[in-house]
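Recap from last week: sequence in, structure out.
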Amino acid sequence: MNIQQLKCFVEVSKTLNFTKASQNLFISQTAVSNHIKHLEETLGFQLFIRNKKNVQLTQQREIFLKSALKVLEANQECYQTIQYLHHENFGQLKIGYLKGIEHCIMIKNIQNFYQHNKHMDIQLYRDSRQEIEELLKNHKVDCVFTARVGHDPIPFEEQFDYLHIYSYPFVVAMSKNHVLSSYSSLNYFDIKNQTHVIMDTSHPDFISHDLDTLFMHLAISQDTAILAQFVEDYYAYQKYLCFLPLKDFSQQFHIYLIWHKNSQNKSLNAFLQSIKKEKE
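Predicted structure tokens:
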């Protein structure tokens, strides 16, 4: 018994016609007949009753068909695995990212890379800035998407390298019932007496807020929050919140990708090349 015999058996079962089966399999009708004959000899029972007018099914054929389909499915799975292992872009890439930046350009970077590297095993880890950078230091991930506020030099250790991905201006988030919601834009002076939150990830003691919880708080209160512009993409809250440009706030929210300089992971190198190409 072999795979080709099983393929012929399944195709004849579908079409109930040896001629059509041979056409679908791109082999001669004689070859199909011979494969079925040898398969029946191996099994010790008849699968089809053939005459000049039609092909009839036997009871044994109905039972055996289920097993044959499972074998062919397993064979296809095995073939795909072999192709996967031989693929030039086979590999594994572990990416950490800062909580709350799911809707920034990071997704596009990973998506574009995966479209051309579908054989690659990409694993994602989401946590606070401190936690994901700790994962990187301990070689638990290959790279991390993280963030800083302002223009100060990034205090990375010598063994790391980094790439600036994108910078976002800040906006003021508030409830649509807020007294300032009718403004088209705001100055920092307008909100200095408001209760507000600055998501400053450059602060060493900063603990990342869960954006969903923060948005829920803003929706039911008169508080405001200064956030990176990309948070407007959290569409579920557009009905309840408004996001106003902050005109006199010069600092920006910078997204960086960080990795070990001495990394030998070819998948990481391919990922870096993909992002650099997008930035050109």
